[in-house]
Predict the 3D structure of the following.
Amino acid sequence: MRKLEQTEKDRVLFIVSDKLGYFEEEVDDTSNLRNDLGADSLDEIEICVEVEKEFNIKISDADFEKVKTVNDLYECIEKFL
């Protein structure tokens, strides 16, 4: 398992902010997708699909259900790289 580089984290932040209608500066590693950013289950699915396309990976539903924050999303991606 390798760690995401900063440019890759920036791409994740772009995906999350774009899907949820925020400026990238308004989203950080500790942002909670549901509580802070207002994501619903459909938003989370769309984020997962975009991340899978961006990094050419497949994230299991069980693993994605554990994602609560942007940092959790980084860790989830790293698991599948």
Notes: The helical segments are 6-20, 41-55, 61-65, 70-80. Residues 62 and 76 are 11 Å apart (CA to CA). The domain at 6-80 is CATH 1.10.1200.10 (Non-ribosomal Peptide Synthetase Peptidyl Carrier Protein; Chain A). The chain has a mean pLDDT of 97.
